[in-house]
Design a protein that fits this description.
With 261 residues, this protein is an alpha/beta fold. The protein has 2 domains: 198 residues, Rossmann fold, CATH 3.40.50; 55 residues, no CATH class. It contains 12 helices and 7 strands. The strands form 2 sheets. A 5-stranded parallel beta sheet has the order 2-3-4-1-5. Strands 6-7 form a two-stranded antiparallel ribbon. Helix 10 crosses helix 11. The protein is globular, with a radius of gyration of 19 Å.
Length: 261
């Protein structure tokens, strides 16, 4: 159900499993997702949650969402936000060491706020009697990556069946978010101290990927197959670059509503 993101999937579904199989991980697992709207960042984070916990256990006890816009609307209250964030993480991990924290809208995160959780992400046996090594942190950042040429080169390599320069892409993303004032990690201690384990690019979706999204949504909503509608929606949402129209600027974000209409 995740289309066009083979690189992200091969990392994201492998790494958390390795973390959970370890009885005492050396540090919490920290991953940062980067990509345009509708490329699957939130969806993949929900897949991680589904695979971490048993089906009969209420996930709300272990999966914790932090939305910058919702939970931190006042940019002038950074110090208060730092204290609240620390208390929130400390309380949830003490209740469940295998907690999953998902931070969305990192591009809206005030400068310095993420540094407040730095102590929880490092190599510590315990902090004030609490062990954080089993926790998992996911940071979701939307936006157009500046490493555009490299990402397009990756897409070409992948389409041709060539090896993917994963380490190079992760290095480029790490440098980009450290220097980008709107990344949530601008000059952050989290990147300076290498506390983010994986920087994962979610690549722009091509027309063929949007087609797959539409087919899946038709099935989910109980509609019969309709290739004319599939082609219509895919072509309407494949809109950039303006001359070539190779990719969708919204990915699969609006597919469900278009299918409903």
């Amino acid at each position: 159900k995740v289309f066009g993101q083979h690189l992200a999937i091969q990392i994201v579904l492998r790494v958390p499993s390795a973390n959970t199989y370890s009885r005492w991980p050396r540090k919490p697992l920290v991953m940062s997702f980067h990509g345009r709207t509708g490329t699957g960042k939130s969806f993949v984070s929900s897949i991680v949650a589904e695979n971490l916990y048993q089906l009969n256990i209420p996930r709300r006890r272990f999966v914790h969402h932090f939305s910058t816009v919702l939970h931190f609307p006042h940019l002038s209250h950074v110090q208060l936000g730092k204290e609240q964030l620390q208390n929130w993480i400390r309380g949830n991990v003490s209740a469940c060491p295998r907690s999953l924290f998902i931070f969305s809208e990192m591009d809206q995160m005030p400068h310095g706020l993420t540094d407040s959780i730095m102590p929880f992400l490092g190599y510590h046996e315990e902090i004030d009697g609490i062990y954080y090594g089993k926790a998992i942190f996911l940071f979701l950042k939307k936006g157009k990556p500046k490493a555009k040429r490299e990402l397009q080169s990756h897409r070409i390599c992948r389409d041709k069946g060539k090896d993917v320069p994963v380490k190079k892409l992760q290095s480029l993303l790490s440098e980009e978010i450290f220097r980008n004032r709107n990344s949530g990690f601008f000059h952050s201690q989290l990147t300076q101290r290498n506390l983010i384990d994986y920087f994962i690019p979610f690549l722009p979706l091509k027309c063929k990927h949007v087609r797959e999204c539409v087919r899946e949504e038709l099935c989910v909503q109980g509609h019969p197959e309709d290739e004319d509608l599939v082609a219509e929606i895919a072509l309407a949402t494949t809109d950039y670059p303006s001359e070539e129209r190779l990719y969708s600027s919204k990915g699969c974000k609006t597919v469900a509503s278009r299918v409903t209409l």
